[in-house]
Amino acid sequence: MIDDVGAETDPGLVQAVVRRDEAALAEVYRRYGSAVWALARRVTNDAQAAEEVAQTVFLNLWTSPDRFDAQRGSLRSWLLAQAHGRSVDIVRSEAARRRRQDREAQLAVSPSAEVETAVHAAALADDVRRAVEGLPPGERDAILLAYFGGHTYRETARLLGQPEGTVKSRIRSGLQNLRRTLDAEGVTP
Amino acid sequence: MSPENDTHPHDELAIHALDALDPDELPALEAHLARCAACRAELEAHRDTLSRLVVPDEEPPPSVWEGIAQQLPRLGAAPTLPDPAPPGIGSEGLPFDLPPVELPPAAEVTADPAGPAEVLPLHARRRRGFVERSGWLAAAAALVAVVAVGSFVAGQAGSDKGGDTVDDLAAAAVDDTGSDVVALSNDSGDAVARVVLTGEATDYVIFDDLAELPSGRSYQLWTTDPSGEAPPVSLGVLGDGAAGAVAIAAPDGVTDLALTDEPAGGVPAPTGPVVASGQLA
Question: Distance, in angstroms, between A108 CA and closest chain B CA?
Fold first, then answer.
């Protein structure tokens, strides 16, 4: 077991998890549990669902630590990618259930309301919000709707009233622009 | 579409980083990613950008870590390559061949998914071992452990707190027309569990009529090769059956499934009796 988990690198902690070191898992949770839970809560808009997503992500790290490849990327972004994927599954299964239940009501959703919801859900920190707001509106809305709203790019295109091809390339250029801006402003995780 | 997209799916990579691709577009992208390191790196770069958007503003409630900590002692690692053989495999002639089971069509799901799983003793639970097949034994000697493809979390807690539990999510997945449901039946032909293959990141195993195992034992789910040539692959250790449902992550292309009774913590290859099995119709 590691003597000082606080001083250990992320890959080192994962190696310790492979060796069944519970303190190492606890340290990973201490470092990234808040971000994982925050993202899950923002995407699902449900504290209970967020709790289960966070638990799933860390328990999966416990049972399958070998799935993390330190060569490919950071532990933080890997954990957040998992949290996001599970959160989106929940949102979509919820949406599907609600649509089935409300089929007769035919509740229409206004695109601007959806974007508002996504913006609110994102709860972006100041410097991050500035970077996001600095994007061309088409790119910004597409990324917010897809990432925080849990919409597929096809649904996003429908919501924004844009062709799918346009939304696809805006998402791509939006992420590139975002990375450049965050780099320029020195925003790191 | 730019000329670049003819060879590398740059737009799809960005969308996939947002988990915003439609499920039918995933296989093609994943096939490309499997053989293109540059695109894997690009996907990673997008995920890193997105991770910078997440700045937590508060601590999670203590119950989040408590739920995790509680599970740790029960959960062994999912088996990975390579692992030394647990004692007894060589001597018992591990090899295995699941006899075909006659099943009702997998699409028939009439049980009430919202009801709690009943804990009943299994009636027809004879110890059924695995038939020896020399070809597979030879392969097993060289490659003893089975790669665990799945991961698992039990649907703990939550039912008294409101909001969706794993049981609720599993029930919703059963109702979803996009899901495939595989009924797992015991020796008597009774369907005792269902595996819900959603086609998305999370699949579910619903314990409809399985006994809760004694301490030290756990159910484990396997996908098997009908021809018997490839060894069974673990889809995860599912716990003692006390939960109503558990979440797993099954790979694509799963068709034949088997549930065995194993030591808690899981094993690299099946050793216990086959409790139930089934196949995708």
Answer: 21
